[in-house]
Write a structure and sequence with these properties.
This protein is of the alpha/beta class and about 525 residues long. The protein has helices at about 15-20, 50-60, 75-80, 100, 105, 125-135, 140-150, 165-180, 185-200, 210-220, 230-235, 265-275, 280-290, 320-335, 350-365, 395-410, 420-430, 455-460, 465-470, 480-490, 505-510, and strands at about 40-45, 65-70, 90-95, 115, 115-125, 155-160, 205-210, 225-230, 240-245, 250, 255-260, 295, 335-345, 375-380, 385-390, 435-445, 470-475, 495-500. Helix 20 links the parallel strand 17 and strand 18.
Length: about 525
């Protein structure tokens, strides 16, 4: 199931160290400076960005300010394991510590855990689809979901399991149900379920590195029947019937944890915050504003949250099973990726900027999946070349080496034809592809030649079908214009990534969750 290539052999985690200095679209800019007294620097799961009202209440109650930096749960665990969180964060607040416990190098960094709230994995389905399938929401099983997918009557979106705990928890739930496992998944369970899982994931038409973008893409495209995510996230999307499968789910318990690298005063602040979060008043605020379930028995769940009991599906008992499941998903089960990298190699990229681009792309080859199609489209005054390579599972090294050679041969000259190059990227993609398809645009300047912004807008609006659904993910770099690139992302349904406050390596890596 796995390839022989080196680097990230299991392709399961982003290089979180590169992201450490980045300012994500959802979090605060990270820094290594000591916090002010009464401030907790918290490494938090990205979906906790909906907790602002709770953070404000905790500050009023305790005098402690929560300063979150948001990151995917699996990326955060990797960061912790590498020791790159030491001295930079005071607390950890992930959706679950289950994967953390499979990483002894990360688990030893945590000295306390206080569950704060919970949210099970669920399925948000269009009401019309529920009616067409004849489902009774309280009785739906994973087997029924699987059958609807096999019959071509249900398509769905979910987050990337290699980066997001909601995606990983969904993968565990489906694998457990389809393998018939009665306990924690084993390697044999995964192998037994793989043929059915491969068919099941043909129904996945939308992927994402974050829950927020997944919801945005769903609202924009309207091309899938359902979303798999935490119940709390799905409850925040209007127009979905939220179903907890009757045969079991994985539940996030959101523990707030102290880190071993902190001192006694900071740990006391973490304890004060954790205690306040579990008071009845704050628990009521949490469930009312975020649709998560309280962990204090005296506080009922918010109205609209189903109170029926469900079997809790166990997390894999070993890291080898977890990594094997992720590797199988990345390289065998999911639809392959198809990406056009539209790369500014104009004259202004000469020197350090071009070197940074080459380094980032060369490093990225270790993360490319089996069956992935990668097109390099460098441009200056016009597109200079179009080179496409496929990572063949039978000989992945050949495709990856070819990408590295093409990367090494990039040179800088010419002006900056952003919009003309994007039009040619869309023309290259054509129509009718059954892949996760995207365009990555990296530029260090403004458009100076070729098609203008308005002309590209008209070109894009004339697109139809799968080409119209292909997002552009621009990367801010050098002297590029934020407004110009943000408009491209908004127009095409993509997302803007910032390499000016972090690293180009980190921006490319973060985009991987969306491909």
């Amino acid at each position: 199931m796995t390839t022989g290539r080196t680097g990230r052999a299991l392709a399961l985690l982003a290089t979180a160290a590169a992201l450490l200095s980045a300012c994500t679209a959802e979090g605060h800019k990270d820094d290594a400076t000591a916090p002010k007294p009464g401030t907790l620097r918290v490494l938090a799961s990205s979906e906790l960005s909906d907790m602002t009202a709770v953070f404000d209440r905790v500050r009023k109650d305790t005098g402690v300010t929560i300063r979150p930096t948001y990151m995917g749960t699996l990326d955060a665990v990797d960061l912790l394991a590498r020791g790159r969180a030491d001295g930079r964060y005071d607390a950890l607040w992930l959706s679950s510590d289950d994967y953390l416990r499979l990483r002894p190098d990360a688990a030893k960094k945590v000295v306390s855990e206080t569950p704060v709230m919970s949210s099970p994995v669920a399925i948000g389905v269009r009401p019309a689809t529920v009616r067409a399938l004849g489902w009774k929401p309280g009785q739906v099983t994973w087997a029924q979901v699987d059958q609807a997918v096999q019959n071509g009557r249900l398509t769905y979106g979910m987050t990337d399991p290699a980066r997001s705990n909601s995606g990983f928890s969904t993968l565990i739930s489906v694998a457990s149900a389809l393998s018939g496992a009665q306990a924690a998944l084993t390697d044999a369970d995964v192998a037994r379920a793989t043929p059915r899982l491969k068919q099941f994931f043909k129904g996945q038409k939308l992927t994402s590195g974050s829950s927020g973008w997944l919801a945005t893409a769903y609202r924009r495209r309207g091309t899938v029947d359902a979303l798999f995510n935490y119940e709390s996230v799905l409850k925040g999307i209007p127009g979905l019937t939220v179903i907890r499968p009757a045969d079991g789910v994985v539940t996030a318990d959101y523990p707030l944890s102290s880190l071993s690298s902190t001192g006694a005063r900071t740990r006391d602040d973490v304890r004060k915050v954790a205690d306040d979060l579990r008071t009845e008043a704050v628990q009521r605020l949490i469930t009312a504003t975020t649709h998560r379930r309280p962990v204090v028995p005296s506080v009922p769940p918010a109205a609209g949250l189903d109170t029926g009991r469900r079997r809790e599906l166990p997390f894999p008992g070993s890291r080898s099973v977890a990594d094997g499941l992720l590797s199988s998903y990345e390289n065998v089960l999911r639809r392959p990726s198809r990406t056009v990298y539209v790369l500014d190699t104009s004259g202004s990229m000469e020197g350090g900027r071009l070197s940074a681009l080459k380094k980032a792309l060369t490093g990225l080859t270790g993360d490319f999946r089996d069956r992935e199609e990668v097109t390099l489209m460098p441009f200056g005054s016009d597109v200079k070349s179009v080179r496409t390579h496929v990572v063949d599972p039978g000989d992945p090294k050949a495709g990856l080496d070819a990408i590295r050679r093409d990367t090494d041969s990039l040179d800088a000259d010419g002006n900056t034809a952003i919009y003309t190059s994007l039009e040619k990227a869309y023309d290259h993609l054509g129509a009718g592809h059954d892949t996760f398809t995207s365009i990555v645009l990296m530029t260090d300047g403004e458009n100076t030649t070729g098609a203008k912004a308005g002309e590209f807008d008209g070109f894009y609006r004339r697109l139809t079908g799968t080409r119209r659904d292909t997002p552009v993910f621009p990367i801010l770099f050098g002297d590029s214009d934020r407004a110009e690139l943000a408009h491209i992302a908004d127009l095409t349904g993509g997302r803007l990534f910032d390499a000016r406050h972090g690293s180009l390596d980190g921006a490319f890596e973060e985009i991987r969750g969306y491909q």
